[in-house]
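Before relying on records like the one below, remember that each one covers exactly one chain. Contacts with other chains, cofactors or solvent are not represented anywhere in the record.
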Amino acid sequence: MVREDFGQLPIVIEFPDVFLEELPGIPPNRDVEHSIDVALGTALISSTSYRMAPIELKELKAKLQEL
């Protein structure tokens, strides 16, 4: 999306007080820097967030294929 088109979005038109024309600047530096230390040689855990019954999963996959 081009920046000029941003102002034409229905959500921006409906709530103009939320979307500023110009940003006030970059966010300030924070005192806390968040990070996660990972041990050398470890792999990231990959798992599903929500388990589904096989029938539900089959239905979801079918709906996604339609899109």
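The mean pLDDT is 83.
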